[in-house]
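in:
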């Protein structure tokens, strides 16, 4: 008699512990009979699907299954009755308010004392977050692939244009290396913020500050986060302007004012960016030849940003001005 009571207590304790585990699980655990009627419903099922236990127990499992997936349940019941194993699978289930939620479902048969299958236990794990992460990762990989291809195109253009305009092989090698490193610096900035937008001040600092000892360089303008295309192209322009500044400016008299504004335009706001340099010793840097720097400042950057650029020399003052739609410069916040 004592052994029987002891065995009952152990079974009772085991059942209570199992019930506590089921109830505290982060996954929805639902049991049903072979007719598809819900028999048990844990707290996580309430959190995931919105039905309370009182609302769900006794109702058909189809309250959770979208109309276009009813055949899934028919097939599950069929395989359960045949005693076949059902592998974990991903699908879509429906909440109390009709929202669809992606879930991973594991199904185990429930047997009676004689070993007959009388129902099934379903563990449903909400995989919304992992699916969203997967979607973002795929989007990121596509974006990276697109940007890498764009970067290759820019690098090839740098090499081709520099080669066409620089007959000396050593100077060609030096200029290509400098320009590709300038692109690399812009890429480093983008990577450091997970391509989430680079502050224009940070880009200027990155490209200009290493040469700031050659005269005074000042910058002023509103805070603006540049998208990847703007970072690479403005970075390229800044590099060419800085190199020209170092080569052809009077270190004692030179002064550079970098300024930018956002102004209303006919089709929306425009981004205005100006490099104003005083103390230039070369009458017209761009008139020295059709070099790659000239191509960047006159055509490439403006075209890449859907805008226009102008280059003016007035005595010892040089002004490069860029106007582009703000939507082609500022990172979009979706």
């Amino acid at each position: 008699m004592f052994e029987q009571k002891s065995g009952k207590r152990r079974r009772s304790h085991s059942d209570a512990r199992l019930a506590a585990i089921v109830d505290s699980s982060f996954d929805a655990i639902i049991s049903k009979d072979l007719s598809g009627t819900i028999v048990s419903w844990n707290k996580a099922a309430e959190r995931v699907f919105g039905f309370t236990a009182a609302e769900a127990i006794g109702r058909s499992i189809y309250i959770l299954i979208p109309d276009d997936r009813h055949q899934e349940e028919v097939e599950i019941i069929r395989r359960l009755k045949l005693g076949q194993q059902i592998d974990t699978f991903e699908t879509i289930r429906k909440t109390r308010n009709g929202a669809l939620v992606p879930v991973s479902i594991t199904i185990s048969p429930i047997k009676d004392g004689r070993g007959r299958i009388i129902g099934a236990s379903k563990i449903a794990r909400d995989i919304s977050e992992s699916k969203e992460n997967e979607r973002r990762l795929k989007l990121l990989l596509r974006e990276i692939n697109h940007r890498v291809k764009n970067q290759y195109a820019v690098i090839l253009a740098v090499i081709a244009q520099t080669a066409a305009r620089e007959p000396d092989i050593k100077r060609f090698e030096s200029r290509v290396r400098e320009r590709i490193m300038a692109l690399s610096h812009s890429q480093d900035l983008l990577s450091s913020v997970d391509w989430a937008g680079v502050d224009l001040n940070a880009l200027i600092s990155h490209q200009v500050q290493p040469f700031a000892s050659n005269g005074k360089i000042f910058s002023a303008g509103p805070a603006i986060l540049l998208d990847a295309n703007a970072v690479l192209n403005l970075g390229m322009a800044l590099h060419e302007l800085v190199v020209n500044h170092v080569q052809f400016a009077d270190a004692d008299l030179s002064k550079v004012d970098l300024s930018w504004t956002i102004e209303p335009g006919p089709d929306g706001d425009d981004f205005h960016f100006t490099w104003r340099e005083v103390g230039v010793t070369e009458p017209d840097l761009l008139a020295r030849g059709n070099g790659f720097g000239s191509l960047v400042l006159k055509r490439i950057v403006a075209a890449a940003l859907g805008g226009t650029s102008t280059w003016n020399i007035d005595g010892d003052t040089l002004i490069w001005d860029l106007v582009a739609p703000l939507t082609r410069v500022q990172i979009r916040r979706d």
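note: The longest helix spans residues 128-165.
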